[in-house]
Design a protein that fits this description.
Strand content: 15-25%
Radius of gyration: 22 Å
Helix content: 25-40%
Number of strands: 19
CATH topology of the largest domain: pyruvate-formate lyase- activating enzyme
Largest sheet: 5 strands, parallel
Strand order of the largest sheet: 2-1-3-4-5
Length: 427
């Protein structure tokens, strides 16, 4: 039996898809990337209206092109719009996040018995087996799920539930397993990782223990909230295993907007955090998320956000146009911003992101970088990322995929295209 996966949304979803794909392969299924399949699994996102629309398009396209295939839809859109998905009949199985880890058993039972009842399976957010065969050279490790923040624009607490931390020993065992299997990079991921807590182990202690796991691998921290990390934690980034890059979610550079977003910090506090990080590692790579067009955002508060983004110098800004989500406080706020204005402001923020990236890349020219080779293309070009999450390519010259190499990064290519900008490396 052939099974194909389509994943939309965040790295938590990517972790879960990788684990599920490995489970299907271990169970005797052939995992295919596109083309014909007997089973299609769609792991959905619902963070914006655009996310919902993309998920619907994917499901309709699969059903249209593969009318006889079994379709299982799971993920956050299920938790948000379960009744709608069931009533549409577009999918054979509609499986919520809490039972996603049982997806293999649900599908396998269907083929053995002719039916399966997802509601009969236990709810469990973390019982995923280590992913040995994945769609990536990095191994994503989920350490946390859910969120207690209830930002006024965000639907995640409603679809992912309250904050829950994975047992620390399970995380360590998961990492040892994937490192033993040959992975050279592990990416810690979760909905709100900075609030991780298991017994006496908080996020900082967890990372410190992971650094001490034996093996030649590096650790990357993915998207994280701007909690007040201690100096002890920031000093960990001096360790060669911990990549000097974090994607710290800002959302707005205006205190007025942050307050209405129900964020838990001010721009002064965010600035102080970034300054402390740069004190420990001046070359540290900071990236972020910013929402434009939040209800009540004026030209003045938008300009404050732009000025703050330039000041901090984020090398990449993942720009979101505010999307009204039913059930959130922001959905009923006055002074909703017109879509045309959101689009204009989004383009302005993207230009700032490109300018910032150019400056950061120029700063890093001539430095040494330990690159993980993620693929070698048909022309013999090795491509991958350095420790600072800088895209690098060079002539492979007998190098192999999934191996580290020390390079001097020199010329910058595609300077006018942020998504394709990269360094040329020299061994």
């Amino acid at each position: 039996m052939r099974v194909s996966f389509k994943t939309l949304g965040c790295r938590v979803n990517l972790f879960e898809t990788d684990a599920l794909a490995s489970r299907f392969k271990a169970g005797g299924y052939e995992v295919v990337d596109g083309g014909e399949a007997d089973v299609f699994v769609v792991n959905t996102c619902t963070v914006t209206n655009t996310s919902d629309q993309k998920c619907r398009q994917v499901l309709h396209q699969i059903r249209r092109n593969h009318p006889d295939a079994l379709i299982a839809v799971t993920g956050c859109m299920v938790n948000h719009r379960k009744a709608e998905l069931i009533q549409s009949g577009i999918a054979d199985y509609v499986i919520d996040n809490e039972r996603k880890s049982a997806l293999f058993d649900i599908i396998d039972e269907h083929f053995k018995k002719g039916y399966s009842d997802p509601e009969g399976y236990d709810r469990d957010l973390f019982s995923y087996q280590p992913a040995f065969d994945t769609f990536h050279t990095r191994s994503l490790i989920k350490i946390h799920d859910g969120c207690n923040n209830f930002c006024s624009y965000c639907i995640i607490p409603m679809v992912r539930g309250r904050a829950t931390s994975r047992p620390a020993n399970d995380i360590y065992d998961n990492i040892r397993s994937v490192v033993d299997h040959g992975f050279k990079e592990v990416v810690l991921t979760g909905v709100n990782m900075g609030r991780y807590h298991d017994g006496n182990t908080d996020f900082e202690t967890l990372v410190e223990h992971i650094i001490n796991i034996e093996g030649d691998f590096r650790i990357r921290v993915s998207s994280i909230e701007p909690d007040q990390f201690s100096d002890r934690f920031l000093q960990l980034f001096q360790h060669e295993k911990l990549a000097p890059h974090m994607h710290i979610c800002l959302q707005s550079g205006s205190d007025d907007t942050l307050k209405r977003m129900h964020r838990f910090y001010t721009t002064d506090q965010f600035r102080e955090l970034c300054q402390r990080i740069k004190t420990f590692r001046p070359d540290f790579n900071l990236t972020t998320d910013i929402i434009v067009g939040f209800p009540g955002e004026t030209e003045t508060t938008f300009q404050e956000s732009c000025d703050f983004a330039r000041e901090i110098g984020f090398s990449h800004i993942h720009t979101f146009k505010y999307s009204k989500r039913t059930g959130t406080k922001a959905a009923s706020m006055p002074d909703q911003v017109p879509e045309t204005v959101k689009t204009e402001r989004s383009e302005v923020m993207r230009r700032i992101s490109l300018e910032n990236k150019r400056r950061y890349f120029e700063q890093m020219k001539g430095t040494r970088e330990r690159m993980l080779i993620e693929r070698i293309d048909a022309n013999g070009r090795a491509r991958g990322y350095g420790a600072h999450y800088l895209p690098i390519q060079f002539s492979a010259q007998g190098q192999t995929k999934n191996s580290f190499i020390e390079l001097t990064i020199s010329d910058i290519i595609n300077k006018d295209n942020e998504d394709r900008m990269a360094f040329i490396g020299k061994p």
